Amino acid sequence: MLVRRLITAAALAVSLFAVSACQPGADFGDLMGPQAPVPAALIKVMKTKDMGLTSPILVRLFKEESALEVWKQKSSGKYELLKTYSICAWSGKLGPKKAEGDRQGPEGFYTVVPSQLNPGSQHHLAVNIGYPNAYDRSHGFTGQNLMIHGSCNSSGCYAMDDWQVEELYALARDSFAGGQRSFQIQAFPFRMTPKNLARHRQSEHYAFWKMLKEGSDRFELTKRVPNVGVCEKRYVFDPLLEPGQTLLPAGPCPVVEETVEVAAKRLSDQAEEDRLFAQMKPHEFAPVSTFSYKTGTPITADAYAAEQHRREGFDRFGKPLKTRKATVFDGFTK
Q: pLDDT tens for residues 247-264?
């Protein structure tokens, strides 16, 4: 009887292996690298939302929520949310990156061109965010090679698991193949809601975050990519430029007009933020982090792991935790 059960189990195991090996995420080495196609299920979602496979994309990052959103352009020209991914790990604290080695993830508005896709990354695949941008450089911020990459380990990058980064890479690759010359990354400390801004009003970065909210508001209202410039060492959105006029990061800013809708949202959100702030109790404010790193200072493995905002299920080195899975043999030998 035992021999018969083992033979049956072996036959079932062979058949299940054949099925499982074709499934995305199966543990049989089915990562395909830079030429991986966009999954059929995601293409189906695109069709239901009137999006083309190679239509332009836009990426939004939210640290506190550990979320990465991919938005895609519809035939109307407006963008709609395609998919939200859980960021696997980001390091540091809320706030912009300022110096090489500070282990901070960038915040702000960044541009990705085809040359910033890295198919040979040591972290499976990677997309260079484009830090430092004109705003960062105007403030003397330093750093390089800040990525969205595979492997759940971060030193200032936004780390995804390998399946996620492969999908993201495919979406970016196909948008470039469709003619998109660059796509925008909007990196925020948190979702720019009145409640979150009230919670974080005591932060040293509050004024910076209010500036980022201006760009966030324009995108959320219009569902179109805002034109981002830098002048007077600050971001400006949809500036009115004369023919041939260019912006200088430290130069004067031109006129920037608000539509009625943008102005109404700004005033409404500010009133709501003020109301919430006035009612909040001390424990409701977001804690203000005081830790900082000295560039070049060695960090122990335990300390490095502790400062990672990492998804559960990965060890301190960013490797998936191995847990025994049930198999078809279970029950046959009992």
A: 999 999 998 889 999 999
